[in-house]
Every structure is written in C-alpha cells, then in structure tokens.
Amino acid sequence: MSKFARVDGQNVVEIITIADDQSIGDLFHPDFAATCFACGDNVAVGWSYTGKKFSAPKPAPITTADLLTYAAARRFVIETGGIILNSMPVMTDRESQSLITGAHSYVQANPEITVRFKTAAGFIELTATQMTAIANAVGAHVQACFAAEGEVCSQIDTGTIKTMAEIDAFAWPSNGAASS
Q1: 174 with 125, same domain?
Q2: Distance of alpha carbon 18 from the chain centroid
Q3: Strand partners, 7
C-alpha cells in the first residue's frame, strides 16, 4: 500500500492510501492528484508540508491558565477520590460530602441518636462521636486538598511550577489511611 498526503496550502488535510500497483494520477483528476504527495506512515492530518518535507504540528505552549485549570482538576480528583478512616473507606465525592455534613449537623443537634449510612459493605450505624470523626476527617481532607491547590497556584504564579508533570509531582494530600 502507498500512502499520500493531500495538501491544501501547506496543511495536510487528508491521507489517501492506494494499492502499490495503482497510481494516484490514474485514480484522481489531475488537479486533485497534483495536491497529493507520497508520505511515510507517520504523516497525519494536521501536519505541514513545505514542498520538500513533512513536519508534525508543534504543540501549543502551555499557558498559566492551562496550568491553573489542570491544578484545579487535579485537586478535584484527589478531593473526591475518597479516604480511608480506621480501615473504613469513606467516599468524598460532592454528594457524600453533603450527606456527611447533614448527618453531622443532625447528630450535633441530637447527640443521643445514631445515624444509618449505606456503605459498599452494607448499612452501618454511627454514633454522634463516630459521625463527628468522619465529618472532621472528610473536612480535613477537603481543606488539605484546597490548601495544596492554593500552594500549587502560588508556585505557578511565581514560575516555580511550569509543567503539568510538576503539578502531578506536587505533594498532594494522600487518599490513604487517616485515623481519628
């Protein structure tokens, strides 16, 4: 199989593959065939062609706004990824945060009662003390995530962090074991 890049201006706009025993000029109108150039398997739509050489597109430079957006997304994934509290997985997605906050407020107003929660392992009953420990652990986790994002953003603003890999390498809060 032979591969051809159809070029408009200097931009590769289409890739055409034909059998080795065929000619691009025999398959297409001469005006169209004149815009097709033999190319390697790696050439793709979006590349450029100077008349002599194909070139891959250069990636757009990463902006401060790109880094700040990536940092916020990284924080969100960690924030909502859950924690382990005394060997018990605790979900920290936004809905779970809301339910935990509501249950914590409820037991603060009614400390003698227990609340029921559905977990992956089934239903559990929690005392006011246990519910408070969970709420505090989730709150601490969420706040640690936002504090980490704030520090990452400060380092982006000062130029200390310049890449997404550096954002990933930052010492984000662990989703691992927390204890009360």
Answers
A1: yes
A2: 39
A3: 12
| Each residue's pLDDT tens digit, 6-45 | 999 999 999 999 999 999 999 999 999 999 999 999 999 9
Our count of domains for the chain comes to 2
Burial of residue 71, with CB atoms counted within 10 A of its CB: 0-12 exposed, 13-18 middle, 19 or more buried: buried
CB 53 within 8 A of CB 37: no
Give the C-alpha separation, 66 to 74, whole Å. Answer: 12
List the one residue out of 130, 141, 140, 134 whose CA is nearest residue 100.
134
Residues 114 and 68 placed together within one structural domain of the fold: yes
Same domain assignment for residues 167 and 117: yes
Sequence-separated (6 or more) residues with CB below 8 Å from residue 25? 33
**Length of the chain in residues, anyone?**
180
Say how far apart CA 152 and CA 108 lie, in whole Å: 35
Residue type, 75: R
| Nearest-angstrom CA–CA distance, 162 and 180 | 37
pLDDT digits (tens, 9 = 90+) for 107-119: 999 999 999 988 7
- Write down the pTM of the prediction: 0.71
Query: Are 124 and 76 found together in one domain?
Result: yes
Same domain, 83 and 170: yes
* Cα distance between residue 58 and residue 43, in whole Å: 14
